[in-house]
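Technical annex B. To support the medicinal chemistry partners, we prepared a structural model of the target in complex with adenosine-5'-diphosphate, based solely on the information shown next.
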Amino acid sequence: MGSKTISVLTSGGDAPGMNAAIRSIVRAGIGQGMRVLGIRRGYNGLINGDVFEMNLRSVSDIIHRGGTILYTARSPEFRTEQGVAKAVEVCKDIGIDGVIVIGGDGSFRGARALSNAGIPCIGIPGTIDNDISCSEYTIGFDTAMNTAMEMIDRIRDTAQSHDRCSVVEVMGRRCGDIALHTGIAVGATAILVPEVKYDFDKDIIERIRFTQKIGKKHFIIIAAEGLGKINEITAEIQKRTGIESRTTILGHVQRGGSPTLRDRVVASEMGCRAVNMLYNGQGNKVIAVKNDKLIDYDISEALSFKKKFDINLYNEALKISI
Ligand code: ADP
Protein backbone atom coordinates (compact mmCIF):
# COMPACT_ATOMS: atom_id res chain seq x y z
CA MET A 1 0.00 0.00 0.00
CA GLY A 2 1.27 3.49 -0.84
CA SER A 3 1.58 6.61 1.29
CA LYS A 4 -1.56 8.15 2.73
CA THR A 5 -0.29 11.52 3.89
CA ILE A 6 2.36 13.10 1.75
CA SER A 7 4.08 16.44 2.09
CA VAL A 8 6.09 18.87 0.01
CA LEU A 9 8.88 21.33 0.74
CA THR A 10 11.15 23.60 -1.29
CA SER A 11 14.79 23.85 -0.26
CA GLY A 12 18.00 25.66 -1.25
CA GLY A 13 17.79 28.44 -3.85
CA ASP A 14 14.34 29.26 -5.22
CA ALA A 15 13.54 28.89 -8.91
CA PRO A 16 10.61 29.94 -11.11
CA GLY A 17 8.39 26.90 -11.64
CA MET A 18 8.62 25.60 -8.08
CA ASN A 19 5.04 26.80 -7.56
CA ALA A 20 3.88 24.88 -10.62
CA ALA A 21 5.42 21.74 -9.09
CA ILE A 22 3.74 22.37 -5.72
CA ARG A 23 0.39 22.88 -7.46
CA SER A 24 0.77 19.67 -9.39
CA ILE A 25 1.72 17.70 -6.26
CA VAL A 26 -1.26 19.02 -4.29
CA ARG A 27 -3.77 18.42 -7.06
CA ALA A 28 -2.40 15.00 -8.08
CA GLY A 29 -2.05 13.88 -4.46
CA ILE A 30 -5.58 14.84 -3.50
CA GLY A 31 -6.78 13.32 -6.77
CA GLN A 32 -5.28 9.99 -5.66
CA GLY A 33 -7.11 10.19 -2.35
CA MET A 34 -4.13 11.27 -0.25
CA ARG A 35 -3.75 14.15 2.20
CA VAL A 36 -1.13 16.66 1.13
CA LEU A 37 0.70 18.81 3.67
CA GLY A 38 2.84 21.84 2.89
CA ILE A 39 6.07 22.32 4.84
CA ARG A 40 7.35 25.90 5.13
CA ARG A 41 11.01 26.97 4.76
CA GLY A 42 12.58 23.72 3.69
CA TYR A 43 13.99 21.30 6.25
CA ASN A 44 13.71 23.97 8.97
CA GLY A 45 9.93 23.72 8.70
CA LEU A 46 10.09 19.97 9.05
CA ILE A 47 12.27 20.19 12.17
CA ASN A 48 10.00 22.86 13.71
CA GLY A 49 6.70 21.32 12.65
CA ASP A 50 5.80 24.30 10.46
CA VAL A 51 3.38 22.19 8.47
CA PHE A 52 -0.15 22.87 7.18
CA GLU A 53 -2.79 20.97 5.29
CA MET A 54 -3.23 21.99 1.66
CA ASN A 55 -6.37 21.69 -0.42
CA LEU A 56 -7.22 22.07 -4.09
CA ARG A 57 -7.63 25.83 -3.65
CA SER A 58 -4.40 26.37 -1.67
CA VAL A 59 -2.60 26.25 -4.99
CA SER A 60 -4.95 28.40 -7.08
CA ASP A 61 -3.34 31.26 -9.02
CA ILE A 62 0.24 30.21 -8.41
CA ILE A 63 1.23 28.43 -11.63
CA HIS A 64 2.37 31.71 -13.18
CA ARG A 65 4.19 33.06 -10.13
CA GLY A 66 7.93 32.93 -9.50
CA GLY A 67 9.39 32.13 -6.08
CA THR A 68 7.81 29.50 -3.87
CA ILE A 69 4.64 29.86 -1.80
CA LEU A 70 6.22 27.44 0.69
CA TYR A 71 9.27 29.70 1.17
CA THR A 72 12.68 28.15 1.11
CA ALA A 73 15.66 28.04 3.44
CA ARG A 74 19.01 26.48 4.09
CA SER A 75 18.97 24.44 7.26
CA PRO A 76 22.34 23.86 8.95
CA GLU A 77 20.53 21.89 11.70
CA PHE A 78 19.24 19.34 9.20
CA ARG A 79 22.83 18.52 8.21
CA THR A 80 23.27 17.00 11.69
CA GLU A 81 22.07 13.59 12.86
CA GLN A 82 20.04 15.25 15.62
CA GLY A 83 18.35 17.51 13.05
CA VAL A 84 17.32 14.54 10.92
CA ALA A 85 16.13 12.67 14.03
CA LYS A 86 13.97 15.64 15.02
CA ALA A 87 12.46 15.76 11.52
CA VAL A 88 11.67 12.03 11.72
CA GLU A 89 9.91 12.59 15.08
CA VAL A 90 7.83 15.39 13.56
CA CYS A 91 6.90 13.17 10.59
CA LYS A 92 5.84 10.38 12.97
CA ASP A 93 3.85 12.77 15.24
CA ILE A 94 1.99 14.34 12.35
CA GLY A 95 1.70 11.09 10.40
CA ILE A 96 3.71 12.12 7.32
CA ASP A 97 4.31 9.04 5.16
CA GLY A 98 6.42 10.67 2.49
CA VAL A 99 8.15 13.94 1.57
CA ILE A 100 8.67 15.48 -1.86
CA VAL A 101 11.73 17.73 -1.83
CA ILE A 102 12.10 20.34 -4.58
CA GLY A 103 15.67 21.66 -4.69
CA GLY A 104 19.23 20.94 -5.73
CA ASP A 105 21.89 18.32 -5.00
CA GLY A 106 22.28 19.58 -1.39
CA SER A 107 18.56 19.15 -0.81
CA PHE A 108 18.76 15.64 -2.29
CA ARG A 109 21.48 14.74 0.23
CA GLY A 110 19.00 15.81 2.91
CA ALA A 111 16.30 13.69 1.25
CA ARG A 112 18.62 10.68 1.27
CA ALA A 113 19.34 11.16 4.97
CA LEU A 114 15.61 11.34 5.70
CA SER A 115 14.84 8.32 3.49
CA ASN A 116 17.55 6.33 5.25
CA ALA A 117 15.96 7.29 8.56
CA GLY A 118 12.68 5.70 7.46
CA ILE A 119 10.71 8.52 5.78
CA PRO A 120 10.40 7.90 2.01
CA CYS A 121 11.47 10.97 0.01
CA ILE A 122 11.35 11.88 -3.67
CA GLY A 123 13.58 14.67 -5.03
CA ILE A 124 12.53 17.03 -7.83
CA PRO A 125 15.33 19.04 -9.49
CA GLY A 126 14.68 22.76 -9.08
CA THR A 127 17.42 25.35 -9.58
CA ILE A 128 17.96 28.06 -12.20
CA ASP A 129 21.62 27.12 -12.77
CA ASN A 130 20.88 23.70 -14.33
CA ASP A 131 23.69 22.40 -12.11
CA ILE A 132 22.13 19.14 -10.94
CA SER A 133 24.42 16.32 -11.93
CA CYS A 134 21.84 13.65 -12.72
CA SER A 135 19.47 15.71 -14.85
CA GLU A 136 19.74 17.35 -18.26
CA TYR A 137 17.18 19.89 -17.15
CA THR A 138 16.15 21.58 -13.91
CA ILE A 139 13.03 23.59 -13.13
CA GLY A 140 13.74 27.32 -13.49
CA PHE A 141 16.55 27.09 -16.04
CA ASP A 142 14.45 28.09 -19.05
CA THR A 143 12.94 31.08 -17.25
CA ALA A 144 16.32 32.28 -16.00
CA MET A 145 17.87 32.03 -19.47
CA ASN A 146 15.01 33.89 -21.07
CA THR A 147 15.19 36.63 -18.44
CA ALA A 148 18.94 36.96 -18.97
CA MET A 149 18.45 37.11 -22.74
CA GLU A 150 15.84 39.88 -22.49
CA MET A 151 18.02 41.90 -20.14
CA ILE A 152 21.06 41.52 -22.40
CA ASP A 153 19.00 42.56 -25.43
CA ARG A 154 18.35 45.82 -23.58
CA ILE A 155 21.99 46.24 -22.72
CA ARG A 156 22.84 45.63 -26.35
CA ASP A 157 20.64 48.57 -27.45
CA THR A 158 22.69 50.98 -25.41
CA ALA A 159 26.03 49.26 -26.14
CA GLN A 160 25.24 49.70 -29.83
CA SER A 161 24.34 53.38 -29.51
CA HIS A 162 27.67 54.10 -27.83
CA ASP A 163 29.93 51.60 -29.64
CA ARG A 164 30.69 50.01 -26.28
CA CYS A 165 31.73 46.66 -24.98
CA SER A 166 29.32 45.25 -22.39
CA VAL A 167 30.60 42.60 -20.05
CA VAL A 168 27.62 40.85 -18.50
CA GLU A 169 27.74 38.46 -15.57
CA VAL A 170 24.98 35.84 -15.54
CA MET A 171 24.25 33.29 -12.82
CA GLY A 172 26.04 29.98 -12.55
CA ARG A 173 28.57 29.41 -9.82
CA ARG A 174 29.82 26.00 -10.92
CA CYS A 175 27.85 25.61 -14.11
CA GLY A 176 28.16 27.64 -17.32
CA ASP A 177 24.86 26.52 -18.87
CA ILE A 178 23.07 29.88 -18.48
CA ALA A 179 26.13 31.68 -19.90
CA LEU A 180 26.46 29.29 -22.84
CA HIS A 181 22.83 29.39 -23.89
CA THR A 182 22.26 33.12 -23.41
CA GLY A 183 25.66 33.76 -25.02
CA ILE A 184 24.45 32.01 -28.17
CA ALA A 185 21.07 33.73 -28.04
CA VAL A 186 22.57 37.23 -27.87
CA GLY A 187 25.55 36.61 -30.17
CA ALA A 188 28.20 37.21 -27.51
CA THR A 189 31.73 37.76 -28.81
CA ALA A 190 33.11 35.70 -25.92
CA ILE A 191 31.49 33.33 -23.44
CA LEU A 192 33.39 32.62 -20.23
CA VAL A 193 32.33 29.59 -18.19
CA PRO A 194 33.82 27.77 -15.20
CA GLU A 195 34.14 24.52 -17.18
CA VAL A 196 36.48 25.88 -19.87
CA LYS A 197 39.81 27.49 -19.08
CA TYR A 198 40.22 30.69 -21.03
CA ASP A 199 43.18 32.63 -22.31
CA PHE A 200 42.57 36.37 -21.95
CA ASP A 201 44.45 37.34 -25.12
CA LYS A 202 43.25 34.59 -27.40
CA ASP A 203 39.69 34.12 -26.19
CA ILE A 204 38.75 37.74 -25.48
CA ILE A 205 41.07 40.37 -26.94
CA GLU A 206 41.81 38.61 -30.22
CA ARG A 207 38.15 37.79 -30.73
CA ILE A 208 37.17 41.41 -30.17
CA ARG A 209 39.89 42.63 -32.57
CA PHE A 210 38.97 40.08 -35.21
CA THR A 211 35.28 40.94 -35.16
CA GLN A 212 36.15 44.65 -35.07
CA LYS A 213 38.18 44.22 -38.25
CA ILE A 214 35.19 42.73 -40.00
CA GLY A 215 32.94 45.58 -39.02
CA LYS A 216 31.59 44.92 -35.52
CA LYS A 217 31.35 48.05 -33.39
CA HIS A 218 29.77 46.89 -30.15
CA PHE A 219 30.60 43.78 -28.21
CA ILE A 220 28.94 41.60 -25.63
CA ILE A 221 31.01 39.38 -23.39
CA ILE A 222 29.12 36.93 -21.18
CA ALA A 223 30.75 35.63 -18.02
CA ALA A 224 29.30 33.07 -15.62
CA GLU A 225 29.17 34.17 -11.99
CA GLY A 226 31.64 31.44 -10.98
CA LEU A 227 34.48 33.20 -12.78
CA GLY A 228 34.49 36.21 -10.45
CA LYS A 229 36.76 39.19 -11.24
CA ILE A 230 34.24 40.64 -13.65
CA ASN A 231 35.30 44.24 -13.00
CA GLU A 232 38.91 43.36 -13.66
CA ILE A 233 37.96 41.68 -16.93
CA THR A 234 36.05 44.80 -18.03
CA ALA A 235 38.88 47.17 -17.05
CA GLU A 236 41.43 45.05 -18.86
CA ILE A 237 39.36 44.94 -22.05
CA GLN A 238 39.08 48.73 -22.04
CA LYS A 239 42.79 49.15 -21.36
CA ARG A 240 43.86 46.74 -24.07
CA THR A 241 41.40 47.65 -26.83
CA GLY A 242 40.56 51.27 -26.09
CA ILE A 243 36.86 50.38 -26.39
CA GLU A 244 34.72 51.91 -23.66
CA SER A 245 33.66 48.92 -21.56
CA ARG A 246 31.00 48.49 -18.90
CA THR A 247 30.10 45.75 -16.45
CA THR A 248 26.55 44.61 -15.71
CA ILE A 249 25.87 41.99 -13.06
CA LEU A 250 22.39 40.65 -13.67
CA GLY A 251 22.17 38.94 -10.26
CA HIS A 252 18.86 37.97 -8.72
CA VAL A 253 16.61 39.33 -11.50
CA GLN A 254 17.36 35.93 -13.04
CA ARG A 255 15.86 34.13 -10.04
CA GLY A 256 12.45 35.77 -10.19
CA GLY A 257 9.64 36.32 -12.64
CA SER A 258 6.83 34.34 -14.14
CA PRO A 259 7.97 30.85 -15.21
CA THR A 260 8.09 30.08 -18.93
CA LEU A 261 5.80 27.50 -20.49
CA ARG A 262 8.60 24.93 -20.45
CA ASP A 263 9.22 25.35 -16.72
CA ARG A 264 5.50 25.15 -15.93
CA VAL A 265 5.06 21.99 -17.97
CA VAL A 266 8.19 20.18 -16.72
CA ALA A 267 7.37 21.12 -13.12
CA SER A 268 3.79 19.87 -13.51
CA GLU A 269 4.94 16.57 -15.00
CA MET A 270 7.57 16.02 -12.32
CA GLY A 271 5.05 16.79 -9.57
CA CYS A 272 2.64 14.14 -10.88
CA ARG A 273 5.42 11.58 -11.18
CA ALA A 274 6.64 12.22 -7.63
CA VAL A 275 3.12 11.74 -6.27
CA ASN A 276 2.72 8.47 -8.17
CA MET A 277 6.03 7.22 -6.84
CA LEU A 278 5.07 7.87 -3.21
CA TYR A 279 1.64 6.39 -3.87
CA ASN A 280 3.32 3.23 -5.16
CA GLY A 281 5.48 3.00 -2.06
CA GLN A 282 8.73 4.23 -3.62
CA GLY A 283 11.23 6.47 -1.83
CA ASN A 284 14.89 7.46 -1.80
CA LYS A 285 14.61 8.53 -5.45
CA VAL A 286 15.26 11.61 -7.57
CA ILE A 287 13.36 12.47 -10.75
CA ALA A 288 15.53 13.58 -13.67
CA VAL A 289 15.38 14.37 -17.38
CA LYS A 290 17.32 12.12 -19.73
CA ASN A 291 17.04 12.38 -23.53
CA ASP A 292 14.12 14.76 -22.96
CA LYS A 293 12.17 12.14 -20.97
CA LEU A 294 11.52 11.82 -17.26
CA ILE A 295 13.26 9.01 -15.44
CA ASP A 296 14.22 8.39 -11.83
CA TYR A 297 17.32 7.29 -9.97
CA ASP A 298 18.12 6.13 -6.46
CA ILE A 299 19.37 9.25 -4.70
CA SER A 300 22.89 7.89 -4.18
CA GLU A 301 23.17 7.07 -7.87
CA ALA A 302 21.77 10.50 -8.77
CA LEU A 303 24.44 12.16 -6.63
CA SER A 304 27.24 10.09 -8.14
CA PHE A 305 26.94 11.60 -11.63
CA LYS A 306 29.29 14.28 -12.83
CA LYS A 307 27.68 17.20 -14.65
CA LYS A 308 28.70 17.27 -18.32
CA PHE A 309 29.24 20.57 -20.10
CA ASP A 310 28.18 20.70 -23.75
CA ILE A 311 31.57 21.48 -25.24
CA ASN A 312 30.38 20.92 -28.82
CA LEU A 313 27.72 23.58 -28.44
CA TYR A 314 30.32 25.85 -26.85
CA ASN A 315 32.68 25.44 -29.81
CA GLU A 316 29.86 26.07 -32.25
CA ALA A 317 28.90 29.23 -30.36
CA LEU A 318 32.44 30.53 -30.85
CA LYS A 319 32.29 29.76 -34.57
CA ILE A 320 29.12 31.73 -35.22
CA SER A 321 29.45 34.64 -32.77
CA ILE A 322 31.69 36.79 -34.97
P1 ADP B 1 20.69 23.03 -3.07
O1 ADP B 1 19.62 22.07 -2.70
O2 ADP B 1 20.19 24.12 -3.96
O3 ADP B 1 21.94 22.32 -3.59
P2 ADP B 1 22.05 23.51 -0.49
O4 ADP B 1 23.30 22.82 -0.87
O5 ADP B 1 22.15 24.78 0.25
O6 ADP B 1 21.12 23.84 -1.74
O7 ADP B 1 21.19 22.46 0.39
C1 ADP B 1 19.92 22.81 0.87
C2 ADP B 1 19.70 22.20 2.22
O8 ADP B 1 19.75 20.77 2.14
C3 ADP B 1 20.75 22.53 3.28
O9 ADP B 1 20.53 23.76 3.90
C4 ADP B 1 20.56 21.39 4.27
O10 ADP B 1 19.46 21.64 5.11
C5 ADP B 1 20.21 20.22 3.35
N1 ADP B 1 21.42 19.42 3.13
C6 ADP B 1 22.45 19.66 2.30
N2 ADP B 1 23.41 18.73 2.40
C7 ADP B 1 22.98 17.85 3.35
C8 ADP B 1 23.50 16.65 3.92
N3 ADP B 1 24.68 16.16 3.53
N4 ADP B 1 22.75 16.03 4.87
C9 ADP B 1 21.56 16.51 5.25
N5 ADP B 1 21.02 17.63 4.76
C10 ADP B 1 21.70 18.30 3.81
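Notes passed to the chemistry partners:
The chain has a mean pLDDT of 96.
The pocket of adenosine-5'-diphosphate is lined by residues 11-13, 43, 74-75, 78-79, 103-107, 109-110, 113, 127 (CB under 6 Å).
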